[in-house]
Amino acid sequence: MNNIDEIVAQLKFDDKGLLTAVAQDHKTGEILMLAHMNEESFRKTIESGEAVYWSRSRKKIWHKGEESGNVQKIKELLVDCDGDAVVMKIEQVGDAACHTGNRSCFFRRLENGTLVDVGVKIFDPDKVYKKS
Amino acid sequence: MNNIDEIVAQLKFDDKGLLTAVAQDHKTGEILMLAHMNEESFRKTIESGEAVYWSRSRKKIWHKGEESGNVQKIKELLVDCDGDAVVMKIEQVGDAACHTGNRSCFFRRLENGTLVDVGVKIFDPDKVYKKS
Predict the structure, then answer these.
(1) Which of A71-75, B102-106, B126-130 has the weakest average pLDDT?
(2) What is the pLDDT of residues B45-84, one digit of tens each?
(3) Structural domains counted in chain B
(4) From A16-20, A103-107, A122-126, B79-83, the region with the lowest mean pLDDT
(5) Is residue B31 part of a domain?
(6) Which residues of A fall below an 8 Å CB-CB distance to B?
């Protein structure tokens, strides 16, 4: 636990108490998603070995995959020069990181002045997420 | 120009008017840096074909490499599902993206509870940046 405190002391959370976190496929290098972590979620990430974010929209701790089962197992964690961003090299369980069912959240590519859907669809979100 | 307007209309700048931008080596997939863009810098990125950020610390448009010469040539640009983050696959001129002289800003790796410097040092920042 002392170790986590020492690492947290080297991080620079922003004025909302957040870091930026990038999840990258540990094998292919594909960037799968970008989200945020507060201190509690960073600690839970380290402790659990799985990506735990802070959901800015739902304003709560978000253990990625808690609903879909698509957890992200941390293989490597890197911190940037100014300590306000982390890169996690992960194994994406279920192959899809995006709530749209795409493998990556970055599924729109700029081509000739328009955004083109180049996503690899892994699941149908209507079937994975319960409707309220 | 109309095309850029249509793309900008699909982006979701945050309450400070910023997107998060990730620069990734277009060949190796290595994540080199993470920074931010306001609308003007996003437009300049598209127009110039090189990464132009908004420097939050200096509060100004920051054409990456303007001082060091280490510009980032855009090979591919991807937008995420909610339009608040972009990934740029780039060619990093000069091989180093980080102001510390490291190839990547993400040069500290979590190992056994401590952050270990695993950076590949490309240049000596004292020699590249003029001292004021």
Answers:
(1) B126-130
(2) 999 999 999 999 999 999 999 887 889 999 999 999 999 9
(3) 1
(4) A122-126
(5) yes
(6) 3-4, 6-7, 10, 20, 22, 24, 28-31, 33-34, 46, 76-82, 85-87, 98-100, 102, 105-110, 112-115, 118
Can you give the residue range of the structural domain that contains B57? 2-95
Residue A1 has pLDDT above 60, yes or no: no
pLDDT class for B127, splitting at 50, 70, 90?
confident
The Cα–Cα gap between B34 and B23 comes to 6
Strands B31-37 and A108-111, by their bridges, are unpaired
Considering the domain boundaries, does residue B24 fall inside one? yes
* Residue B35 belongs to some domain of the structure: yes
Which two tokens mark B44?
A: 């300049």
Residue B71's contacts (CB-CB under 8 Å, 6 or more residues apart) are B50, B51, B63, B64, B65, B93
Q: Around Cβ B14, how many Cβ atoms within 10 Å?
A: 12
Residue B49 inside a domain? The answer is yes
The CATH number of whichever domain residue A86 belongs to comes to: 3.10.20.810
Q: Do B109 and A77 touch (CB under 8 A)?
A: yes
Distance from CA of A20 to the nearest CA of B (A): 9
Contacts of B107 in chain A (CB under 8 A): 78, 80-81
